[in-house]
Write a structure and sequence with these properties.
Elements: H1 7-18, H2 25-40, E1 44-45, H3 47-55, H4 67-78, E2 79-80, E3 90-94, H5 101-112, E4 123-128, H6 131-145, H7 148-154, E5 158-160, E6 164-167, E7 173-178, E8 189-195, H8 204-211, E9 220-225, H9 234-247, E10 255-259, H10 285-300, H11 306-312, H12 327-331, E11 344-350, E12 357-366, E13 369-379, H13 392-398, E14 401-404, H14 411-422, E15 426-433, H15 437-446, E16 457-460, H16 462-477, E17 481-482, H17 487-494, E18 496-500, E19 512-516, H18 525-534
Parallel strand pairs: 3-9, 3-10, 4-7, 4-8, 8-9, 11-15, 13-14, 13-17, 15-16
Antiparallel strand pairs: 1-2, 5-6, 6-7, 11-12, 12-13, 18-19
Length: 556
C-alpha cells in the first residue's frame, strides 16, 4: 500500500534531483529513500494539519518556510505509520551555520503548542549546552507574540513570559533548558529538541530527556546542529547512523537523517558547492555575501579559522597549530588490527600522576604501516574525573580502559600488563618520560627493564618528540596508523595540540612538541604513551614477527 507524497515533500525532492541548487550526496540519498518509503509503506500524511502548520509561518519574520524546512515539517510532524504513530520520531538535522536552525526550532514549537495540535499538554523542551542556545528559539516566539499588529490576535491562543511560551488550548509549554541532567527525571516532554548537539560530549542529558518521554502521545525528538570539533561524542554517532541509513540500507527505526555538508575541503573553492552545506543559501543573498567574506578570511589563515570550514561547510578540520592532525585523519585510524601474535613491538608508557590516568602502548610496524594496541588506567580518586565528559565508563566496559578502585594507580598494574604482553609479543624496548621514570622504575625492574640497560629502556626527552613529529604527521597524512576501534586513544589525540618549541634568537626552528588543549577535562595519556613507543621504533626495522623473549612471571 502506498501513500501519495505531499507537495511540501515532493517539491524538495524535485529541487534536489534537479541539481539547482546543488545538494550533497546525503541529500540525494535521502530523497531517494523517502520516495521508496512512500511507495512501499502504508503511510498517512495529515495534509490538513500540515497546511495549518505551514500557515503559521506568516506570523514569523521569514514569512514562509523554505523548501527544505517544509520538507522536514511534513515528514517529522505530519507523517504517520499504519498504527497512527509518527513515522519519523527523531529528526536529525545538520546544516551549515546561518541556515536558520533556531528559527525552524521556534516555528516547530509554535506549531506544536498551537490549537492545531490536538495532543493535550504537549510540552517542548529545548535543551542546549548554554542558556543562550536553549532560550533563543523561545525568545523568537515571544517576539512574534509581542508584535503590535499580532499581539491582540495571538494572545487568544498563546501565553508567554520571559522564560516560557504556553498554548492556551492544548496547555503545552515551550521551555529552554541548559545541559544539566540533575533533577530532570519525571518530566513529561512531548517533544525534546537538542540544539547545537555538536557541543555535547556525552549522552547524560540526552538520556534523561529522551527516557522521560512516553507519558505523552506522539513523542518526538529533534537534533539540530552544525558540525563541530568534539570527537567521539553524540554528533559523531548520529552522523554515522544517518550515513548507514542513507548509504548502507540500514533500517531507520524512525530516524530521519537530514545531513548537509561538503564532501571534502577542496569543494569549498567553488561557491556553487556551498549550498551542499547550507540549503538556505540560495534564498538569502545577505548570507551569501557574509560567507563570501568569511571564505576570503579563511583563505588568508585556514589553520586558525577552522570554524568556517567546520561550521559553515560541515567538514571537520582541526587547527594545525592546535590539533595534532585533522579529525578525519584521526578517524581513519579506526581499522581492524591484524593478529599481531609473535610480532616485535616497542612499549610506551605515560604515567604522569599516581592518582590520575596512566597508559601503555604496544607499537608494531610492517614496512611503513604502524599498528598500535593501547590501554589506559583511570584512578577512582582522579580530581579531574568529574569534569571529564567523554564516555569513559563505556570505554571501561568495552575493555579499552581499566577503572582502578584504589587511591592510586599502582605501578605494578602497568608492569603486569606489559609482562602479559611479553608472553605474546616480542618486546624490543620500552620508552617513557625521563622525569616520570622514578615512579615506575622498581616495578619495571622486576620484569626486566632497567634504565641502566640502554638497549632495553629509553627515557624520552622533548628533543625526541621534536624529531618524531614529522614522522607522526606523515603517518596521519598517508593513513599509516591502524589502531582498531579504540575511542579512548582517538579522544586523547584530539585533546592534544602541537606547539612550537622554543625559538632561538627570534628564529622559528620549525620544531613541535605536544601539550594538552585543556588540562581539567581532557586527557592525553593514551596518545603520549603511543608517542613514547614511537621514539624507539627504529628498533623494529621493517617489523613483523620475531621470537618472544622469556620474561619471568611475577605475582603481586
Amino acid at each position: 500500500m502506498s501513500c501519495k507524497i505531499p507537495p511540501a515533500v515532493q517539491n524538495y525532492i524535485d529541487l534536489v534531483k534537479s541539481g539547482s541548487p546543488r545538494a550533497c550526496p546525503e541529500q540525494h540519498a535521502l530523497v531517494e529513500r523517502i520516495e521508496r518509503i512512500f511507495s512501499a509503506e502504508p503511510l498517512y500524511v495529515d495534509e490538513t494539519k500540515l497546511s495549518k502548520y505551514l500557515s503559521l509561518a506568516k506570523y514569523f519574520p521569514f514569512g514562509r518556510l523554505l523548501p527544505w524546512e517544509e520538507f522536514l515539517t511534513a515528514l517529522w510532524l505530519c507523517t504517520y505509520d499504519a498504527k497512527g504513530f509518527p513515522r519519523f520520531k527523531t529528526c536529525f538535522c545538520m546544516v551549515g551555520r546561518g541556515a536558520g536552525k533556531d528559527g525552524l526550532i521556534g516555528f516547530v514549537g509554535f506549531c506544536m503548542v498551537s490549537p492545531y495540535n490536538k495532543v493535550p499538554h504537549y510540552n517542548i523542551d529545548i535543551c542546549a549546552n548554554n542558556e543562550e542556545q536553549a532560550v533563543t528559539p523561545v525568545r523568537d516566539i515571544a517576539e512574534v507574540l509581542e508584535t503590535p499588529r499580532l499581539e491582540r490576535k495571538l494572545k487568544k491562543y498563546y501565553y508567554h513570559t520571559k522564560e516560557l511560551v504556553q498554548g492556551r488550548t492544548n496547555k503545552g509549554v515551550i521551555k529552554g533548558r541548559t545541559n544539566n541532567p540533575k533533577g530532570r527525571d519525571g518530566m513529561r516532554s512531548g517533544m525534546v529538541v537538542f540544539n547545537e548537539v555538536h557541543q555535547f560530549e556525552n549522552y547524560d542529558n540526552i538520556t534523561v530527556f529522551v527516557t522521560g518521554q512516553g507519558k505523552v502521545a506522539e513523542p518526538r525528538v529533534g537534533i539540530f546542529t552544525s558540525n563541530g570539533e568534539v570527537s567521539d561524542g553524540p554528533l559523531e554517532d548520529y552522523l554515522e547512523r544517518g550515513r548507514r541509513i542513507l548509504f548502507d540500507g540500514e533500517e531507520d527505526g524512525g530516524f530521519l537523517p537530514f545531513i548537509c555538508c561538503l564532501e571534502n575541503k577542496d569543494q569549498v573553492h567553488d561557491p556553487a558547492n556551498w549550498t551542499m552545506a547550507n540549503p538556505s543559501l540560495a534564498y538569502m543573498p545577505h548570507l551569501q555575501k557574509e560567507i563570501e567574506d568569511e571564505y576570503a578570511a579563511w583563505l588568508l589563515n585556514p589553520e586558525e579559522n577552522t570554524s568556517f570550514i567546520t561550521k559553515r561547510m560541515g567538514v571537520r578540520a582541526g587547527k594545525k597549530e592546535l590539533a595534532v592532525t585533522d579529525y578525519e585523519k584521526v578517524k581513519a585510524t579506526n581499522r581492524p588490527l591484524p593478529d599481531l601474535t609473535g610480532w616485535s613491538c616497542t612499549v610506551g608508557i605515560d604515567y604522569a600522576e599516581l592518582t590520575d590516568w596512566a597508559a601503555v602502548n604496544l607499537h608494531f610496524r610492517q614496512g611503513a604501516q604502524r599498528y598500535d594496541i593501547n590501554h589506559a588506567w583511570i584512578c577512582r580518586d582522579a580530581k579531574t574525573l568529574p569534569k571529564i565528559k567523554a564516555p569513559w565508563r563505556a570505554w571501561v566496559e568495552a575493555g579499552h580502559c581499566t577503572f582502578v578502585e584504589d587511591v592510586s594507580i599502582h605501578p605494578r598494574l602497568l608492569a603486569g600488563y606489559i609482562q602479559q604482553a611479553a608472553a605474546k609479543y616480542n618486546i624490543l624496548g620500552l620508552a617513557m618520560d625521563k622525569f616520570r621514570w622514578t615512579m615506575m622504575s622498581e616495578a619495571l625492574k622486576e620484569i626486566g627493564f632497567d634504565a641502566n640497560d640502554k638497549n632495553r629502556v629509553h627515557l624520552v626527552r622533548p628533543s625526541d618528540i621534536m624529531q618524531l613529529d614529522p614522522v607522526v604527521q606523515d603517518c596521519f597524512d598517508r593513513g599509516l596508523f591502524c589502531w582498531g576501534d579504540n575511542p579512548a586513544l582517538r579522544w586523547a589525540v584530539n585533546n592534544t595540540k602541537r606547539v612550537r618549541s622554543a625559538q632561538r634568537q627570534g628564529v622559528d626552528t620549525g620544531n613541535f612538541i605536544y601539550a594538552k588543549i585543556e588540562w581539567r577535562s581532557r586527557k592525553t595519556d593514551p596518545w603520549m604513551a603511543l608517542v613514547a613507543s614511537m621514539t624507539i621504533e627504529d628498533k623494529l626495522g621493517d617489523g613483523g614477527r620475531g621470537a618472544a623473549p622469556m620474561i619471568e612471571a611475577f605475582t603481586f
